[in-house]
Amino acid sequence: MKNHYIVLTFLMLFITPNILYAQYGSSIDSINIAQQLYNLLNTNYIVNEIVDVSVAESIGGKFGLISDPYNTLEGDLIFVAERETPTNSDYYGVTGIFKNNQIVWKSDFIKPYGARNGSVLAVFDLNNDGNVDIITTWYNSYGRLGVLDIWIYSWDGILAYTINPFTDFSSGIETYEGMGFDFADYQGDGVWEIIGYEAMGDSIYENSDNSMVYSWDGETYDYSETLIGNPYEIFFPRNQFNAFVTTRVNQNQQNLFNYFYSVKNGQFSAQNINEINIVGNVDSILILNLPSKWKNLDFGTDITFKEDIKFANSNFSIKNKIIAGDEKGFSYSTSGLPYISKAYLRGFNFTSYHIEGELADYLNNSVVVPVVAATLPPDPFVTIYFIDTLINYKTRSFELGWITNETTAIKYDSLFNLTKTQLQQYNNNAAKTILQTVLQEVDVDSTSNLTSEAYALLRYNTEYLLEKIPLSSPNLLVKLTSSLGNQIPASNVMYYESAAGGWKDAVNNGDGTFTVITTKPAVSIRMFYEYANQTVHNVPAQNNTYTFQTVNASVQLKNSSGNLIDQGTVQYYAGAWRSFGTTVNGVANKELLPINYSFRMTYEFGSLDKQQNLSSDPTVVFQTVNAAVELRNSSGNLIDQGTVQYYAGAWRSFGTTVNGVANKELLPINYSFRMIYEYVPLDKQQDISTNSTVTFSTVLCTVKVTKANGQPLSGASTKYYSGAWRDIGLTNANGEATKELLPKSLNFRAASGNVSKDKQQDIGVNNLVEIQLP
Description:
Number of domains: 7
Oligomer: single chain
Number of strands: 51
Mean pLDDT: 88
Distance between the termini: 93 Å
Largest sheet: 5 strands, antiparallel
Helix content: 10-25%
Number of helices: 8
């Protein structure tokens, strides 16, 4: 699998000491403000901090939390000051606005015990009411250590009023000094909540219950009974906006594609956009152009989109977002071709990259917009597959409205399908001519019938395909089709020019066809398919196409009556025994080159080989015979009951005789058969292709028992041994007992009274067994 990498571009802000000083005002401003406070209040005040709003906003100062969205603080200095010498430990603080060397507004006194170390925390429209809010923090020493109070003033350009609850001693919004404050939009409605923290652990990550949320109730920010929980364990809404993204692509002199994106936030969107992820598939981005204060964030914070083209502005910056009704442009350059992709856009809100499940949040908490992005060309490149890609781009573009009318969509559908037909017929020159027509039509339609997205997809991918299609070659094209005439991919093709050159590999075209490049007027060609090969001679080699065609080889299994039966397993030999298939309804099929093969049918554990040339007959028939195994007695009469087996890798069941005969359909080869009768087994080998009837005959075994003087002994017990001693019977007056047995060597026993005697004899040689008892 190909690895993809992104060259990352970062935009960084360097703050020099002079810029930092300008951001916070000058020492002269501090002296003037202190003097005017003395004149107004008849008390000395220390100016804790001065923020030049215009400068801080432009350079992203104060952690990026300074913004003057309505230009009501243009040229203003915001200051915070505290009484220089407290009376009875009463600290009085004041916040104000200084402009044109005059204090144009100041707050009421911040009450005792809550007015030390004042600082401007943020300036922006906190509650989305059209007024900019000045947010300050003060150290509160009233009986507690490490507590900060927040005081908020809503400024309309002339007057300001307090929008935080407060008592005589402190603000109603506070936090543990070591934790600070956070802002989060819990509802995704553009109205921010303030999050403070209690000192209940070493870290807010250790205690999810120590956060305090203050929400806007229409008049003030007050403690919320419902919005609770550690913000570092919450996914806040980031999809409460309407987004419109357009893509424009052009090609530069270095043959790189420039991708330009215009991202617009809807006029009535509740949230600003501060993160964009364009899903791409490229090795590298060579040039990346982003708006001021935006940067590429593709450094592994989101591993799922690590290979994508991703950029966002700083999470903590109020300015530089794409606000409702606003629009920003982005661009990058790469060698990747245009394709249809997605852009994941996210609204500005509190975020934490430490929460498990961020991927699911990204997929479900984003606004997804179809866009054109960059992708690597296919490798290997196959022209037929790529024309299918163009047809798909046409279809999707019409569905997305990038092709604006059905007439235009039908036109390109016709052109691309006609190109495909010409490519399938190897009419490369005709295919290239049609694609040139596509390019002409694209230029004409770009003014009204195609958006910039459809134009990029159709033009640049068509140009790429044109470059990849060679002119029709005067050489020999070799292809392979099935028995139905459909093209199938060959394994390899070789050609033979002369003995000196020997057999050479033809050029693999990547689409299952091969090209023979030669100056000879004729060559021999060898086609390789399914482990076999076929050779033809004296094939014209200039400006010619030669087609090999397979046959649908059919291997049948029939019984002795000519009916198709199952189930047989079929193989064919091509360098080794290869799988052909298993019969279904008595037949197995496979496309093979029309040459001579050996076939093997395995049925009922027996195998039979057969050789056949498929060029003359593609149907190979194997037929079983009805093997009949008989059991007859010494008089030639059929008898029961014998048990029959046959050997095929192991002894297999054949059946039990009925009326002296057992039958089974078997392949006509040589087998060993075994008859078991009266516990005695007898084996016999027979080629049932020449004689399908296997006959076993018993002999009438006679055991004759005599006395020591040679006289017959009647009433003697006779037995034979076959796995155990089996009865023959008692001797008659002539001293004889008889039994039909299979002709083989057995042990016999005669017994009378306490006297017995054994004797071994092959009754197939001599069926009279004589035993003399002493």
